[in-house]
Design goal:
It is a single chain. The protein is α/β, with parallel strands linked by helices and 314 residues long. The protein has helices at residues 65-71, 98-112, 125-136, 169-179, 186-193, 200-207, 217-224, 233-245, 275-278, 292-295, 297-312, and strands spanning 3-4, 21-27, 33-41, 48-52, 75-79, 89-90, 118-123, 141-147, 252-257, 283-285. Strand 9, helix 9 and strand 10 (283-285) form a beta-alpha-beta unit. It is globular and about 50 Å long.
Length: 314
């Protein structure tokens, strides 16, 4: 497996992102290893809060929440999934799968960091990869916040009468563009989905991990893995994970935004099935699009802190 590594100078002086890099060496599934980056702020003996981003973002998306959690006494961890941010980037599309992302997260958070009683905050693809990790390590988890994401499934062995999943026309069109666009400027796609107008420094922050088109391969792989067909292997794996999560009774809060363009009702894929989620009504914040931490950061951060305080009895 050929590995790309973004030069460190690409991350110098990024707006609102002063955090020292931390790394875990994890298996690359080809007999070697790669380096996975994470932010680790706040007291090391504090209750861990783990944030997992989606596509096309990286741990930069959590930059406004990280210091608030750290100042509140939490050990605040924000990972960069493999292929994104400061993490190493396998160079071929076929190096990536959702199953591998799940195992890479497990290698970093469970095996390397040995986290216990952790609170998880999941967004976009982080909602799928992170929830699958949680399903297999429920004893390590204290709570979950689930935001602007969904958990699509297909029962193993169920007959597929229609291959194309309903409501995925725009996603399939997007995938066709990504297949033919090796130099996809994903940070521009992100900005186009914002309801606010970020300044040039923020745009540079999201673009920082990708100095050349080759560095976008991990983002492209996520786009090509979108579940637009019922034979996507991710769907059966998700179904198995959701079966395990039907016994998950720990606090689980869905926090979404009312103008999400990607997964506006994604909470419906988990609340009916996961007891901890069913006990809490979803929170729908006003004025935010899919990337709600860019559009309405103060409202989102307030709900995160309230939830964590409520479940701890503080």
């Amino acid at each position: 497996m050929d590995i790309l590594r973004t030069p460190d100078d690409r991350f110098e002086g990024l707006k609102d992102y002063p955090f020292a890099p931390q790394y875990a060496d994890i298996p690359d599934f080809s007999g070697g290893s790669l380096r996975m980056h994470y932010v680790d702020e706040g007291p090391r003996d504090g209750a861990p809060v783990v944030m997992i981003h989606g596509n096309p973002t990286w741990s930069y998306m959590w930059r406004k929440l990280i210091p608030v959690l750290a100042d509140a006494g939490y050990r605040t961890i924000a990972v960069d999934m493999v292929g994104m941010g400061r993490s190493d980037k396998p160079s071929a599309i076929d190096d990536y799968s959702i199953a591998r992302h799940e195992k890479w997260l497990e290698a970093c958070l469970i095996e390397a960091l040995d986290l216990r009683d952790a609170h998880f905050i999941l967004h976009d693809w982080g909602g799928i990869t992170g929830l699958r990790l949680i399903a297999n390590h429920q004893d390590r988890v204290a709570s979950v916040i689930y935001s602007n994401t969904g958990f699509p499934t297909w029962e193993p062995g169920k007959e597929i009468s229609k291959m194309i999943r309903p409501g995925t026309d725009f996603l399939r069109a997007f995938q066709n563009i990504i297949r033919s666009t090796e130099d996809w400027p994903h940070w521009e796609t992100l900005v186009q989905q914002l309801l606010t107008d970020p300044d040039d420094a923020v745009k540079a922050g999201f673009a920082a991990p990708c100095p050349e088109p080759a560095y976008v391969v991990g983002n492209r792989a996520f786009a090509l893995n979108l579940p637009t067909r019922n034979d996507n292997p991710m769907l059966e794996d998700n179904w198995r994970a959701l079966e395990k999560l039907k016994s998950f009774q720990k606090p689980f809060q869905c926090i979404y935004s009312d103008k999400d363009q990607v997964a506006p009702t994604g909470y419906q894929s988990v609340r009916p099935y996961i007891p901890g989620a069913a006990e809490r009504e979803e929170i729908i914040l006003k004025g935010g699009g899919h990337f709600l931490l860019e559009d309405i950061p103060d409202a989102y951060i307030a709900e995160v802190i309230k939830f964590l305080s409520d479940i701890s009895g503080a």
